[in-house]
C-alpha cells in the first residue's frame, strides 16, 4: 500500500524508525560526552536504547580494578526477578556477583571480546546454568555486548528477548554502538575519579602541612614536625612506611624521623645508598622485589630529595604502596619543599630575636612560594624560549608561574594571580600548582585544564573567599601555535616583528577561577610565526605607583617591551628593573611583580 502516491507505508515506518534511532543515539552520545559520572546516566542510556530496539529488557555489569572474579550488577531497572536474587543491587557500586556463576557464553564473550547472541537459552548448552533464572525472569534469548576500552573489557551489557522475539541485525548494530558509548562513559568516570583522588590527596596534604608548620612555629619542636609530615607522606602516597632523612651542616650528622603503619621500626634508612645513586630529584619504582641487609622486603618505593637551590639537604622516602605514579612524585615534591622551608624556619627562629618573628615568617613564606614555583624557565626548541621574572612582594602575594613539558613539541604553562596575600594565597597557590601538574597529564587543551581547575578547586576558593585570575597556554613548536585559555586575566602583550603591539589578536576572557562553579572557558589559538615575543604578566606591574600616586600602567609597559624585544631576556629584565626604579623610586613593592616572556631567540 502506498500513501498519496509516495513511499509505501512500510518504508515510511522504517524511515521513521531509523530517524528515531539516530535521534536517540545522538542524545546518548551527548549524555556521555557531557557527564563525568557513568552511574548518573546509565539508567537513562538503557531506557533510550530500549525505546528504539525490540528487546524490552537489559542489564549492565562492570568489573572493578581489572578483577574478573566478580561482575557487579549496576543497572537492572527493567528486570523483575533477577534483582531479588542478588544482594546489594541498591548499593552505589552494585551487587557483587561471582563471575563463575554466569553461563559459559557470557564468560566467553568477555574473554574473547566479542558479541554473542543465544537465541534460546533452553536449547543451547552454553546457557544451561541460567535456565531457572530465565524461567523466573521470563526471557528466552540473551545477547552479550562487552564494554571494551583500549583492548580491555571493563564490563558488559546483556539484552533479553521473550519467546517469539528476536534481535535483528539492525538492533544488534544499534545496541553495539550504545555499548561502545557506555564503555567510553565508564572510562571517563574512572579518569575523573582518578584526578579527583589526586587533588583530594593534594588538598589533604597541604592542609596537614600548614597545620604542622603552624605547630612548629608555636612549639619549636622539630621532632614532632617531622613525625607529623612523615605520617602525612605515608597517607598521601598510600604507602606502608616513610622516612625523612635531613642532613645537618655537620658532615654525616643527620636528623631522622620515620613512620610505619604496622608500628614497626622503619628499614628505609638502608635504602639511602641505592637512592643516592639516582641523579633525579624525585623518582619511583614498582615491582622491585628488593631485600635489604636486615632481611626486610621492599616491593615498591618512591623518593624526593630535600633541596635548597642546588643543595641537597636530605631525602623523603616512602615504600610498599600497591603502585606509585608520576603524580605521586609531584605531590611528594610539594611535601619535600614544605619540609625544607619548615626546617629552615625552625633553625632561623632558633637564632632570631622574638620581636622580629612575624617579619621572619613572611620572609620564609616568600621563600616557600619561590620554592613551589621552581625554575620553570626553559628552551622550548631551537627558536623559542620561556623566561619568567618574579619579584615577590614584601607581604607574600599570590602570583605564580609553572611550565610542564608534555612532549618534544608541546609545553603547557600557567600564569596566575590569587587575589589575596599571606598564608591564604600561599595555600591556594599550592593547590593550584599541584592540580595543574596533574591535569597537564590528563588533558591537552588549555580550556579543559582551566575548566577542571575551576570545578575541582571551587569549594576551596569559596571557603577561603578568594578567587584567581590566570592564563593557561599550550605552546606547539611544531605547528607554531599558542593556544590560550583566559580566566579573567590581562591579555598577553604580543609584539610584532616591526616592534609594534598586535592589538586585535583574539584572546577572549572567561570569568576568574573560583567565582562560579560551572564557569566555562574557551580556547584561543594564536599563530605565533610573526610574533617574536609574547609577554604575560600580573597586575603588580601596572599598579606600581610614583610619588604622585600615578600608576605605571599598560601603555608604559607596552612601550618598554617594544623598545627592547630584540634583546636577551636577561637584558630586558634588567631594563625593566631600571625603569620601575626610575618611575617609583623604590626597589620593593606591595604586590608581586611577575612577567613570563615567550621569546623567539632568532630575533
From TrEMBL:
<dbReference type="InterPro" id="IPR001932">
    <property type="entry name" value="PPM-type_phosphatase-like_dom"/>
</dbReference>
<dbReference type="Pfam" id="PF13185">
    <property type="entry name" value="GAF_2"/>
</dbReference>
<keyword id="KW-0378">Hydrolase</keyword>
<dbReference type="InterPro" id="IPR036457">
    <property type="entry name" value="PPM-type-like_dom_sf"/>
</dbReference>
<dbReference type="InterPro" id="IPR029016">
    <property type="entry name" value="GAF-like_dom_sf"/>
</dbReference>
<dbReference type="GO" id="GO:0016791">
    <property type="term" value="F:phosphatase activity"/>
</dbReference>
<feature type="domain" description="PPM-type phosphatase">
    <location>
        <begin position="381"/>
        <end position="600"/>
    </location>
</feature>
<dbReference type="InterPro" id="IPR003018">
    <property type="entry name" value="GAF"/>
</dbReference>
<dbReference type="Pfam" id="PF07228">
    <property type="entry name" value="SpoIIE"/>
</dbReference>
<dbReference type="InterPro" id="IPR052016">
    <property type="entry name" value="Bact_Sigma-Reg"/>
</dbReference>
<protein>
    <submittedName>
        <fullName>Stage II sporulation protein E</fullName>
    </submittedName>
</protein>
